[in-house]
Amino acid sequence: MGRGRVQLKRIENKISRQVTFSKRRSGLLKKAHEISVLCDAEVALIVFSTKGKLFEYSTESSMERILERYERYSYAEKRLTATDSEQMDNWSLEYPKLLSKIELLQRNIRHYVGEDLDPLSLRELQSLEQQLETALKRIRTRKNQAMHESISGLQKKEKALQVQNNELAKKLKEKEKILSAERSQLVQQHSVVQNSSALVLPKPLPVPSLTIGGPYQANGAIGEEVDGRGGGGRTINSLMPSWLVRHIN
């Protein structure tokens, strides 16, 4: 049967309390050494007995160094806590002030748009009117300034467009000059070709003769003979072959 859980309370027996202190102190020092070695931690342990005797343990660094580090950390943590508490106190004080400012601004906005004017006195209404007139003057001044800036910008754009238009017109004129020169050159070339073709005409081709042995000669010409068979006085070229003459007759 396992041992039950021991209730933690002061041991009344003085001897038993001393024995338990010695055992637990040794175990506590052993555990402190183990955690410093296993976890590479800086450990400082201070124990005072009931008689006021001191028992301590520290890692390789000295006890004073660990205590100084503890004090710096504790002081910084206390300062941070104090700062947070001061900020909380300041916020708690600032909240009502900010809330009242918000309410005042909302009321002024309602007055500026013409709402909730009944509770206002004559002096407050005059002050409100003066504020509105001042605001209107500022608005008109800013509006005129914006209009002048817009007009100036448009004028600059107009000048830039005018310059661009002039450049395009100049380029167009140059292209028209080039086209007119090319057109006149083509016309001159065409007229030269026409003149040359009118001056030099090709020779007409000779008409081929349908007679064999030369054309017909007139009556009484040299080399002709008369057909004596009553051929109507037709003359036949003597240079024609006889078989062709017979065929013709």
Write the layout of secondary structure elements.
Layout: H1 14-39, E1 44-48, E2 54-58, H2 63-112, H3 122-199, E3 224-226, E4 235-237, H4 242-248
Antiparallel strand pairs: 1-2, 3-4
Task: Please describe what this structure looks like.
The chain has 4 helices and 4 strands. The protein has 249 residues and is mainly α. The chain has a domain at 14-83: SRF-like. The longest helix has 78 residues, at 122-199. The protein starts with 13 loop residues before the first helix and ends with a helix.
Strand content: 5-15%
Helix content: 55-70%
CATH fold category name of the domain at 14-83 = SRF-like
| Radius of gyration, CA atoms, in whole angstroms | 68 Å
Structural class comes to mainly alpha
In the predicted model, the low-confidence regions spanning at least 5 consecutive residues are 212-233
Outline type: elongated
Query: Distance between the terminal alpha carbons, to the nearest Å?
Result: 172 Å
Count of discrete alpha- or pi-helical segments spanning 4 or more residues = 4
The CATH first-level class of the domain at 14-83 comes to: Alpha Beta
CATH homologous superfamily caption of the domain at 14-83: Transcription factor, MADS-box
Order of helices and strands: HEEHHEEH
What's the count of strands?
4
- The CATH architecture of the domain at 14-83 can be given as 3-Layer(aba) Sandwich
